Amino acid sequence: ADDAAASPQPKKKGKGREKGVAEAKEKMPEPLGLKEILAQVNTDPEMATGRLALSGLIVIGALLYSQRFLALCERMARAVSHPTIMYKSKTPDGEVVIIDDYREAYWWLRDHTPSDARVLAWWDYGYQIAGVANRTTIADGNTWNHEHIATLGRCLTSPEAKAHAMARHLADYILVWAGGGGDDLAKLVHMARIATSVYSDICPGDPTCSQFRSLK
User: Fold this and answer.
1) Is the CB of residue 155 less than 8 Å from the CB of residue 137?
2) How wide is the angle at C-alpha 84 spanned by C-alphas 80 and 89, nearest 5°?
3) Which are the contacts of 141, defined by CB distance < 8 A and separation ≥ 6?
4) What is d(CA 131, CA 120) in angstroms, rounded to the nearest whole number?
5) Does pTM top 0.70 for this prediction?
6) CA distances from 172 to 42, 68, 85 (A)
7) CA 197, 203, 209, 213 torsion: positive or negative?
8) Could you give the CA distance from residue 99 to residue 83 in angstroms, rounded to a whole number?
9) Chain segment 12-49, per-residue pLDDT in tens
10) DSSP letter assigned to residue 29
11) Using CA atoms, how far apart are residues 150 and 138, in angstroms rounded to an integer?
């Protein structure tokens, strides 16, 4: 019993570990705030040099990209600003002719219709009707309402009497292009498909509107 009382008691490891952690925390530096970090970057010569180098690379990259972007903008501007309402073509005997039907039609609308007239046409021609003919158009390339475009398609693909019964409430004049190439007859199946996506009576049971393909 005396030997047991005289033997040293083992140290408790838990308290020593907690003390070591506390001392380590005291020695750890306080985290720097954003202002301190920026001040250190601005005053440290090595970090300032690295910052200048990085800034230079960013500026050079931006300049190189901007040159490519400007070249792309130039090409796109030339492509989309081409006067597509007039075409050059050749007759079978080789004679060069200028097809000016679009401009003539738009000028006819400008000169022979009231200034407040509304023109119903497929949306492809909306900007040209507004810009060249100076008349109000029912739809153009910025018409985002799908049902609006579908209604135009229904007017342009329905039988004449039914189409007139609808169109008379929407516009004063109807412009339809014909004559081959990319005219409205060629676009008829696309008009019908858009129309039938809203009005099921255009192509009942045929979502691709194959019946309109044979009319090209």
Assistant:
1) no
2) 135
3) 123, 124, 126, 127
4) 15
5) no
6) 70, 47, 23
7) negative
8) 12
9) 555 556 666 666 656 666 666 667 766 766 676 666 67
10) P
11) 12
